[in-house]
Amino acid sequence: MKLLSTKATCNSHGQDSSYFLGWQEYEKNPYDHVQNPKGIIQMGLAENQLSFDLLESWLAKNQDVGGFKRDGKSIFRELALFQDYHGLPSFKKALVDFMAEIRGNKVTFDPNHIVLTAGATSANETLMFCLAEKGEAFLLPTPYYPGFDRDLKWRTGVEIVPIQCTSSNNFQMTESALQQAHEDAKKKNLKVKGVLVTNPSNPLGTTMSKNELNLLIDFIKDKNMHLISDEIYSGTVFTSPNFVSVMEILNERTDKDFLDANVSERVHIVYSLSKDLGLPGFRVGAIYSDNETVVAAATKMSSFGLVSSQTQYLLSAMLGDKKFTRNYLSENQKRLKKRQKMLVNGLQKAGISCLKTNNAGLFCWVDMRNLLTSDTFEAEMDLWKKILYEVGLNISPGSSCHCTEPGWFRVCFANMSEDTLNLAMKRLKDFVSNSNGEEGSNSDNKRTRSSQSSRSFTRKSISNWVFRLSSRDHHEQEER
Ligand SMILES: Cc1ncc(COP(=O)(O)O)c(C=O)c1O
């Protein structure tokens, strides 16, 4: 008798992608400058640790809030009791105001149109449940955030069809790539329900232009589809061009065609405080939609992933402090800019370049094609393993983001100290010099490993993954 469900035993979670395997390897042998100086440096995690001091100093000045008091009186019992799944009105108001502030107050958001979720992960999955049936599809531009295979597909049974973007135009989405993806879906007998983009993009670290956004809006208007704009990095833009939210485009479009088609009801924004405020552990996300039915359905579904009352209480006070949010956003932006520059310069010294258009996010999209032994995903995996085990850096291979060109990697820069970033750059430079047969120290190159057995286990899982990746590519090529 089968004891577990198909869902519990199915393989579509994506946990065995190199993106997650790299995290596992890091966990076994994490770098620490005193305890484990030869350990692996985690550069595969898009976390923002650069502005914790600003949050901590706000908390120190507002101890009543942290101690669950209002006007000096404890509200512990109020917070501990049953929570209505609509969320605290004061928090929803503070959150929409914060979202508007990030967009330069060019747009406003109605707190009645927001649904709180346990992070953007839950927001994206909830939208899939609301907008598509099992076996229907969403189009996503490549490269895309590896977590989407889990978030969009795993439990919902929704399919992802890639919109193939290439380095020839810095991975920007084109009309022909969109149309091609639509054709590809049709050939697979998949009904397409919408397009999902991340703006700013993870993993590219770039913002979408007004042209791209208008292209998308016209596409979903003509094809009668939905658009999900995951704007989780909207406050994490450190140089021009500025971030443009799809909401701004919706406000600008006043053509009759657009208004008649009720497009605004088919555009949904996903947001979270995991990146802009650096609070992924708090699990605070949201769906914003002008579609009443979607808001009502998503609110009911949010029962499965609510944001705790004490978190909402704390953050409604923090985000309600406008002086604090203004200062936080601008200071955080300065720090990100400085950090990104350090990474770009460090890579440059090692002869490695990044996507020139990088102006946002917590990572760079790095071109290591010159370090591949051949123009294949097998060579990309070989390089990734060398960088993981010999250099001691966990970075994310482009193939884990479904990039169609081998040799690109996502490298994070905001989840470590400056010293650690400098060490990572030194290790990489030495590795490149050694690979080129030049002189260079290799003293750092022999990583200590946690145990022989765990290493061989992981290598086996990585080999399995590479095997599956090459079969997938062959299969996709045959289908094309
Ligand atoms: C584009 C994108 N969407 C969603 C998520 C998930 O975020 P959360 O921690 O809010 O669930 C991430 C996290 O890396 C992301 O990069």
UniProtKB/TrEMBL annotation:
<keyword id="KW-0456">Lyase</keyword>
<comment type="subunit">
    <text>Homodimer.</text>
</comment>
<dbReference type="InterPro" id="IPR004838">
    <property type="entry name" value="NHTrfase_class1_PyrdxlP-BS"/>
</dbReference>
<dbReference type="InterPro" id="IPR015424">
    <property type="entry name" value="PyrdxlP-dep_Trfase"/>
</dbReference>
<dbReference type="GO" id="GO:0030170">
    <property type="term" value="F:pyridoxal phosphate binding"/>
</dbReference>
<comment type="similarity">
    <text>Belongs to the class-I pyridoxal-phosphate-dependent aminotransferase family.</text>
</comment>
<keyword id="KW-0663">Pyridoxal phosphate</keyword>
<dbReference type="InterPro" id="IPR004839">
    <property type="entry name" value="Aminotransferase_I/II_large"/>
</dbReference>
<feature type="domain" description="Aminotransferase class I/classII large">
    <location>
        <begin position="41"/>
        <end position="428"/>
    </location>
</feature>
<keyword id="KW-0949">S-adenosyl-L-methionine</keyword>
<dbReference type="InterPro" id="IPR015421">
    <property type="entry name" value="PyrdxlP-dep_Trfase_major"/>
</dbReference>
<dbReference type="GO" id="GO:0009693">
    <property type="term" value="P:ethylene biosynthetic process"/>
</dbReference>
<dbReference type="InterPro" id="IPR015422">
    <property type="entry name" value="PyrdxlP-dep_Trfase_small"/>
</dbReference>
<dbReference type="GO" id="GO:0008483">
    <property type="term" value="F:transaminase activity"/>
</dbReference>
<comment type="pathway">
    <text>Alkene biosynthesis; ethylene biosynthesis via S-adenosyl-L-methionine; ethylene from S-adenosyl-L-methionine: step 1/2.</text>
</comment>
<keyword id="KW-0292">Fruit ripening</keyword>
<keyword id="KW-0266">Ethylene biosynthesis</keyword>
<dbReference type="GO" id="GO:0009835">
    <property type="term" value="P:fruit ripening"/>
</dbReference>
<dbReference type="Pfam" id="PF00155">
    <property type="entry name" value="Aminotran_1_2"/>
</dbReference>
<feature type="compositionally biased region" description="Low complexity">
    <location>
        <begin position="434"/>
        <end position="443"/>
    </location>
</feature>
<dbReference type="InterPro" id="IPR050478">
    <property type="entry name" value="Ethylene_sulfur-biosynth"/>
</dbReference>
<dbReference type="GO" id="GO:0016847">
    <property type="term" value="F:1-aminocyclopropane-1-carboxylate synthase activity"/>
</dbReference>
<feature type="region of interest" description="Disordered">
    <location>
        <begin position="434"/>
        <end position="458"/>
    </location>
</feature>
<protein>
    <recommendedName>
        <fullName>1-aminocyclopropane-1-carboxylate synthase</fullName>
        <ecNumber>4.4.1.14</ecNumber>
    </recommendedName>
</protein>
